[in-house]
Amino acid sequence: xxxxxxxxxxxxxxxxxxxxxxxxxxxxxxxxxxxxxxxxxxxxxxxxxxxxxxxxxxxxxxxxxxxxxxxxxxxxxxxxxxxxxxxxxxxxxxxxxxxxxxxxxxxxxxxxxxxxxxxxxxxxxxxxxxxxxxxxxxxxxxxxxxxxxxxxxxxxxxxxxxxxxxxxxxxxxxxxxxxxxxxxxxxxxxxxxxxxxxxxxxxxxxxxxxxxxxxxxxxxxxxxxxxxxxxxxxxxxxxxxxxxxxxxxxxxxxxxxxxxxxxxxxxxxxxxxxxxxxxxx
Length: 281
Prior knowledge:
GalU_uridylyltTrfase_bac/arc, globular, 34% helix
């Protein structure tokens, strides 16, 4: 399965400025969050990236993409109809091909040589099916993420066959239907904000949006739950971390994570120790 296109959703009206925030990346260079996210895709040999934006945001986003601007396509989500609707705006761009999908308010770090998106794309190519990245997540974070029910693929510790997907479940819902054997108590497999999806997803989105009453805003999780019934769909436990820039202290946590993984790690650690010492005094 060839994966040459990527789609980044960044049209949320309440979060449209998040990709424009400045962070210091692992190489010590100041970049907009959007540039860091686009670079995550480009490192996977992605040739074209489509960014779904709110009306009027294209100019600011083009500038924020830095050197990757020429590789970007922009599509406006004219009506604020939610995440799934935003993703569907890329149907023409994806052109019945599988694609990498990232969200515009997360940045990622990796624990290995390969970046998070590279890990995911390699698995999707090998398995020739849709694969969503997941991360064991504490129960108190369930209100922020879609969560999967899954069983381990025999012989593989980091790959799961997805059985269901629920959007932001309550702890009681998760305990009843989303427990995954092998995870420690109080943890669930939550979506990482990164997927490789086949064209079937766009078909399911089109049907869902056609049947949906006006004014409703669908989420992606029910579409992914339907995908389970259509074809093989895997979850990959990511060797990395996701950082949601849109939550309280999200930018701070993301910046610390990038710094501690990067070229300035020792300098940042020294400054943190000095800051803690001063506070202790």
